[in-house]
Fold this sequence. Notes:
- This protein is mostly helical.
- The chain is 70% helix and 0% strand.
- Helix 14 runs antiparallel to helix 15.
- The protein is elongated, with a radius of gyration of 24 Å.
- Residues 92-110 have low confidence and may be disordered.
Amino acid sequence: MDGRVAETMTSVEAMFREERGRLLASLVRRFGDLDLAEEVASEAIEAALVHWPVDGVPASPGAWLLTTARRKAVDRLRRDRTYAARLAVLQVEVDRAGPAPPADADGDLPDERLQLFFTCAHPALPAEDRAALTLRCLAGLTTAEVARAFLVPSATMAQRIVRAKRKIRQARIPFRVPGADELPQRLPGVLQVLYSIFTEGYAASSGPDLQRPGLAEEAARLARILRRLLPAEREVAGLLGLMLLVHARRDARTGPDGGLVLLEDQDRGRWDRAMIEEGRGLVLAALTGGPPGPYGVQAAIAALHDEAADVATTDWPQIVALYDVLLALTPSPVVALNRAAAVAMRDGPEAGLALLDELAGEPRLRGHHPYPAARADLLHRLGRFHEAAAAYREALDLAGTEPERAHLRRRLNAIEEAGA
């Protein structure tokens, strides 16, 4: 393969990954079937990889791909009467959504990804299927890549994605944006899917690595798309701001050996200041114009951490106040746990420990290693080493990633050596 062909193929693959969601959304909107759309979209890119190195990249690559994919879909429907009969039923739902928007002035694809966001995140689908389908359809990850993201075998993920598509087909889930009266109920589900993807990338639930930056970046990219599609929705701005303000610290969260570096020990010079500034602007948009939402409040907390020169000068009273607001908006033991940690920084470890002890019977914190880890840290700071060691052991048993386990082992070893 000569340099020109290799360069063309690389640019085509990058462009297709970026535009795949738009292409898929247009095809689903036209034909009403996700499986068919995926198949002909893949065939169109294969055709591009054959023709473009010879004929050159067209002026409107997206329009070329869409035209090619549509022709392949029509050819397939002509050959397969069963497929055509099934699509005739599904097309009723497509027709209810109204006519497809026209192509852009430059002939490019209309941007129908918003419909695909709401289809992939429909509440009729199980939560894990929503995230998998969103990554597959909107982020353009392969089934194998989605499987790696969730640390499951490819066959398991393939079954999960097939199950989600079957549910969409059998339940006649419409490919449309919810109406203004439905949007407040449906948008949080879309945001939760993106936040779940980001959380798994920022703090992996298991495996050898603390973070999966590529997964976090895909979630942020999808949030950017959603922000462009719904610019007036303040919680979309809040979610994107939260992602950027947290992801800005990614390089400082691990040491050269991949080990965990706590916030108090991080080199803040390694934080991405441009990303922080963008995130702060989004916080302002999220908190202006009405009551705050959960993502806007969480983004404001992240901004206070990012603005501080160090842990000692962090505005802990303001962070506690924001956690009070967040707890009122979304009562959750995890939020209460984070608030207790902030109270410990504001009022001392004894005050924080008292709040943590109040959560001891909370079933949703069982199996959640940050809870015993937080207790261990405060007990250690209070000089209650025997109790701290027991809490560290509990956290060690529950921690999912090797960097977290290594950090907890170091803390436990230090206590045991001091006791000996």
